[in-house]
Design goal:
This protein is of the alpha/beta class. Helix content is 35%, strand content 22%. The protein has a 7-stranded mixed beta sheet with strand order 1-2-7-8-9-10-11. Strands 17, 18, 19, 20, 21 and 22 form a 6-stranded parallel beta sheet that branches. The protein has a 5-stranded mixed beta sheet with strand order 12-13-14-15-16, with no helix packed on it. The protein is elongated, with a radius of gyration of 25 Å. Bound molecules: MU-OXO-diiron. MU-OXO-diiron binds next to helix 2.
């Protein structure tokens, strides 16, 4: 029989390891696997589970809980966040233990209803609300966009243990489960931040302020090792990385792809136009840079110029991928963009890119810069001026 793992008195890990996982959520690397951490907290009067697990591991999850107590002894399920890697097993848990009351933010309750496709017995909590288990008190902290709008933290006041769901997590499967005895997972901790938290750097910093105000003995995240040693190192890192992510000097990126060098020459001219305007610029070949690196580069600028030739009536795949790498920031209306490219016959690429960027809520220059086949010296000069003009007029599109 699978057994729960004790953490401290009255707190056990009833989560699961997913050691064979290699890609999380379709595109996030997880070369060291992951874990879906769930915690069982026994109070003198009530018992609570904090977080669920991925639906693929429901049976293991239920077995581990039952190694500690019968399911009908569980009073609460604390749902800090409803992404299905945590909520997937909830339907079956509620079937087996219908007396359980869910405790969640308003957003999480709404999402959960749509996932379960039925009403659930749900207690909605807000910032600072508490839940008593008798001799134990749980306090809830709202941290929207860590990394979903529904997210909250749960803090066990007496033992000073924070349950931050995805926050401070790692895709790292190590059955030793504690950071001071697991293999080194700093790279996975950092990669996890990059892929999941960095797009919300401002919200992460706001949440870290709340964490700073806590006394902490331990952080029990929902993925990867439990942090019980050198805890503030992890909080420090989140703060440092988030501040860095928010540093945006006046800067632009020119990301392009080019079959025969014509769009590349336009890209170089556009970059020159940015420099002439006093801005800094990154010139990126979309076909030569990984999507992850492209995302990091594009998130660090305010303006992006996308360049693509038209091939078979379409912009080309590396540019579509690059555009897809930034929707989180663009979606909040903070990014500006313009499009350029060389074409041979019909030149649809720029128009298509503009429509896509509008859909992602970029502030888009409606006027692209297009050149038929090979740009002349005059074309390059005009491309440079077009870029500089756009930078000077961004407000008109904002
Ligand atoms: Fe681990 Fe956002 O789910």
């Amino acid at each position: 029989m699978l057994r729960a793992m004790p953490i401290i008195k009255d707190l056990s890990w009833v989560g699961v390891l997913d050691a064979s996982l290699r890609v999380f959520d379709i595109f996030i690397p997880a070369s060291q696997g992951s874990s879906y951490n769930s915690y069982l907290l026994r109070g003198s009067e009530k018992n609570a589970i904090i977080e669920g697990v991925h639906g693929r591991f429901t049976e293991q999850f239920l077995e581990k809980i039952q190694s500690e107590m019968p399911l009908d002894k569980i009073d609460y399920l604390i749902v800090n966040h409803t992404e299905p890697d945590h909520s997937g097993a909830i339907a079956r848990l509620l079937e087996a233990a219908p007396q359980i009351e869910i405790v969640a933010s308003r957003g999480a309750a709404t999402f959960l209803r749509a996932q379960l496709n039925r009403e659930a017995n749900c207690r909605i909590v807000s910032e600072g609300d508490t839940l008593s288990l008798g001799d134990k008190t749980l306090r809830f902290m709202m941290v929207p966009f860590w990394h979903w709008p529904d997210t909250m933290f749960t803090y066990w006041e007496e033992e000073k243990i924070l349950f931050p769901c995805d926050g401070f997590g790692s895709h790292f499967a190590d059955e030793r489960m504690f950071n001071d005895i697991a293999d080194d997972f700093w790279m996975e901790f950092s990669s996890y931040y990059d892929h999941i938290m960095r797009p919300f750097a401002d919200k992460i910093l706001a949440g870290c302020e709340k964490v700073r105000a806590l006394e902490l003995q331990m952080i029990c995240p929902s993925h990867g090792p439990i942090l019980r040693s050198d805890i503030w190192r992890y909080v420090d890192a989140y703060e440092e990385w988030s501040r860095k992510a928010l540093l945006k000097p006046q800067s632009a990126a020119v990301i392009y792809t080019s079959a025969y060098g014509n769009t590349r020459r336009l890209a170089e001219a556009v970059a020159e136009g940015v420099r002439n305007s006093g801005g800094t610029v990154k010139l990126l070949d979309a076909a030569a840079i990984s999507l992850h690196d492209a995302q990091a580069e594009l998130e660090s600028v305010q303006v992006i110029f996308f360049g693509s030739p038209t091939i078979n009536g379409d912009a080309v795949l590396p540019i579509w991928n690059a555009i897809s790498a930034t929707p989180l920031l663009a979606g909040r209306g903070k990014m500006s963009a313009a499009c350029f490219g060389s074409y041979g016959w019909s030149g649809e690429a720029c128009g298509q890119m503009i429509e896509r960027l509008k859909g992602l809520r970029y502030n888009v220059n409606p006027v692209p810069f297009k050149v038929n086949f090979v740009p002349t010296g005059e074309d390059l000069q005009k491309a440079s001026e077009w870029a500089a003009d756009f930078l000077g007029c961004i407000g008109e599109w904002c």
